[in-house]
Amino acid sequence: MSVTILEALMNADYNIQKNGAIGLMLAKGQLHNAVELLDRGYSVDDEVEPLLEKYGKVENVPDKE
C-alpha cells in the first residue's frame, strides 16, 4: 500500500506525538522524504513508494515536470 506525501506527513506527526524515541527515528525519514519530494515539485497527492521503488532513494528522484 502506497501513501501520499500528505499521508507520510501525517504519519510522521503521529510518530512524533505517540511513539517516543522510535517514533522520532521513523518520523525523521518520513519527513525527509516528504519535504524532498515537495521541494522537487511533487504535490501532497503524489505517492511516495512508487518513486522510491523506481529511483532507489529520494535524492535520486528527479524534479517533477
Number of strands: 0
The whole-number mean of residue pLDDT values reads 92
Overall SS class: mainly alpha
Helix content: 55-70%
Name the poorly predicted regions: none
Distance between the termini: 25 Å
Count of separate structural domains: 1
Biggest sheet, open or closed, and with what strands and sense?
none
* Element string (H = helix, E = strand): HHH
Estimated radius of gyration: 12 Å
- Beta percentage is under 5%
Which word captures the global form? elongated
Number of helices: 3
What does this structure look like?
α1 packs antiparallel against α2 (20-39). The protein is elongated and about 35 Å long. The protein has one domain (5-57). It has 65 residues and is mainly alpha-helical. The N and C termini lie far apart (25 Å). The mean pLDDT is 92. It contains 3 helices and no strands.
Concise account of the structure shown:
65% of the residues lie in helices and 0% in strands.
Write the layout of secondary structure elements.
Blueprint: H1 5-18, H2 20-39, H3 48-55
Quick tags:
65 residues; mainly alpha
